[in-house]
Amino acid sequence: MPSDKPKASRHTEIERKFAPSESAVSPSFEGLSSISRVERSPVQSLDAVYFDTPAHDLAAHRITLRRRTGGPDEGWHLKLPAGPDSRTEVRLPLGDGDPTSVPEDLRDVVLAIVRDRPLAPVARIETTRTVDLLIGPSGSPVAEFCDDEVTASTPANDDRQTWREWELELIGDTEPDEGAALLTRLANRLFDAGAETAGHGSKLAKVLDQARGEEPSPTPLEKPHPDPVHRAVAELVDELIVWDRAVRADAWDSVHQMRVVTRKIRSLLRASEESFGLTDDSWLLNELKELAGILGVARDAEVLAEKYDKAIDALPDELVRGPVRERLVEGGKRRYQAGWKRSLSAMRSERYFRLLDGLEALVAAEPSSATPGAEPAPPSLESSYGSVRKAAKKAKAAAKDPDVSPEERDEALHKIRKRAKQLRYTAAALGDDKVADRAKAIQSLLGDHQDSVVSRTHLLQEAVVAHAAGEDTFTYGVLFGKEAEVARDAEAQIEDALEKLKKAAGDG
After folding, report:
1. Which of 379, 414, 437 is the last residue of a domain?
2. 186 and 330 share one domain
3. Backbone angle region of 38, left / alpha / beta, with phi > 0 → left and psi within -120 to 50 → alpha
C-alpha cells in the first residue's frame, strides 16, 4: 500500500548575501543585456525557527535547519554546502506534526553530524522581504533580488537583533560558468549601490555570532597540524561525513566511495599507530574494519551488476542464453538494495555514532608518543614498502609451490594489494607522489584481479542455481572464461609493476 507520507524535495540554491550601508540606495539593473525588466512581488512576512544541537554542530558544518512560515516556499528547509555560492536545499512541507520536532527524514540526512544529540530551537528570525524578479530576454525570471529587514532572537538571549540584508539568487537553469558570470554582474550593481559582501554565510550564523558577543567575520584559517598523516586523517574524517550524506541519498557510487574513505582512514591509522596512541587491537581500528565490511556487501553487488551488464552487452546475441541478465544484473541490483539498507541500519546505530565520536576525538587530540616529551615518530615509508616486498615474496613462492591451492595463491596476491594500498595512502600523505603512484598502479592491477576472483566465485554459484532451475548455463561459462583472462592479465603485469615500485622506493 503506497505511503501518504510527503517526500523531501531537493533544490540547488545559488546565491550571495550583501550588507547594505546606511547610505545605500536601491540598486539599478538597467542596461544589463541579461535583464529585460524588473517585476516587484508583494512584500513577504517570513517567520523562521532554526534548530541545532546544544553545541551548534550543524552551524559548525555550515548547515542550517529551519521551519519557516510565510512566503511561497514555507515549510521545513535543510541547507547543505554545495560549493562556492551554492547550497543544496532539502525541503518538506510544514505538515500537521509538532512544530518543535524535526522530521525524521531531515534529521536522517545530517545524522552523522547530530548523531544521538537532541535538536532544539536555537534562534527565531523574522524577515520582512521585498522581492524584485529580474526577467531575462526570454521572458522568464533569471534571478531574484531580496531586500530584507531582519529581526532575530535566541532562546538564551531576549535581546532582539535587527539589521538589513540584501540577497541575490539565481533562478532557472543556467550553465555553471554562465550563472557565475551573471551573478558577478548583478553583484557589481549592488556594490555600486553601496553594499558590501556580507560577513556571514547565513542569517543564523550572524545571530549566533552576535549572541556570543562576536562580530560576524570570515572563519579564520586553522593552523595546519604539523604531522602530515594527522592532517590527512582529519581531512578524510570530514570526507567520511560528506559521503555519509550521499549514501543516505542513495547517490550513485556513494557506498563504494564511503568504503574507500573508511579503508583509507584505517590504513593511515595503522601506519602511524604511535602518533595516534593506538595499537593493532584498538577498538577504533576494529570498528572501521567492521564498517568497511558492511559497506562492502552493497559495493560488491553494485560492481558485479555493472560488470555483468557491460559484459553481456559485449557478447554476440547467440552467446547469451537463458535469463542470465535477470540473474546476474537484476539480481545484483536487488542485492545492492539489500546491502544498502543494511548499511543504513548500521549508520543509524549508536555503535556508528561512537565510532564517529572516536574519530573526531582522535584528530582533535595532540599527537602522542611512546616517550614522554618526545615528538611522535613519523610513519615510515620504508616499513610500509617492506611489507609490500614481503607479501610479494610470499606470493611468488606460492605461485611456484604445487601444493598451494589456487585459492591460496589468489589470497597471497590479495595481500600484496592490501599492503600496496597502505603504502599508497601513507606515501600520498607524506608527499611522495612517485611511490604513491607506483603503489596505486599495483593496487589497481590487483584490484581487478580480486574483482575477478569474486566474480568467478559468484558466477559458479549462480550457474549452480540456474542449472537446478533447468536453465541453459552456457553464458555463465563464457563470462567465467573472460574473468579468468582478466586475472591472468593482472598476474602477467604484476612483476613489472613491483619492479617499478622498487625503483621508486630506491630499493637497490
Report:
1. 379
2. no
3. beta
Lowest average pLDDT, out of 277-281, 345-349, 475-479, goes to: 277-281
Give the start-end residues of each E strand in 136-248: 141-154, 157-170, 195-197
- Domain count across the chain: 3
Q: Does the pLDDT value for residue 78 go beyond 60?
A: yes
Spatial separation of the C-alpha atoms in residues 353 and 90, rounded to whole Å: 23
DSSP state of 56: -
- How far, in Å, are 194, 223, 438, 499 from residue 503 at the CA level? 62, 36, 9, 6
Q: What is the mean pLDDT of residues 281-286?
A: 93
CA gap 99, 214 in Å, rounded: 30
Contact between residue 91 and residue 73 where contact means Cβ atoms under 8 Å apart? yes
DSSP state, residue 218: P
List the domain range (segments joined by +) for residue 415: 388-508
Verify that 455 and 355 share a domain, yes or no: no
Mean pLDDT of 154-171: 90
DSSP structure string for 97-145: S-TTS--HHHHHHTHHHHTTS--EEEEEEEEEEEEEEEE-TTSSEEEEE
pTM of model > 0.70: yes
Give the whole-angstrom CA distance, residue 340 versus residue 112: 16
Same domain, 366 and 416: no
Considering the domain architecture, whether residues 136 and 23 belong to the same structural domain is answered as yes
244 and 303 both lie in a single domain: yes
Domain boundary among 350, 379, 408: 379
Cβ(208)–Cβ(154) below 8 Å? yes
**pLDDT value, residue 366:** 67
Spatial CA neighbour of 290 closest among 335, 372, 238, 354: 354
Looking at the domain assignment, is residue 3 inside a domain?
no
Looking at residue 200, its pLDDT comes to: 83
The residues facing 51 across adjacent strands are: 121
Instruction: Report pLDDT digits (tens) over 92-106.
Output: 999 888 999 999 999
Residue 82 resides in a domain:
yes
DSSP code, position 318: G
In a domain, 216, yes or no: no
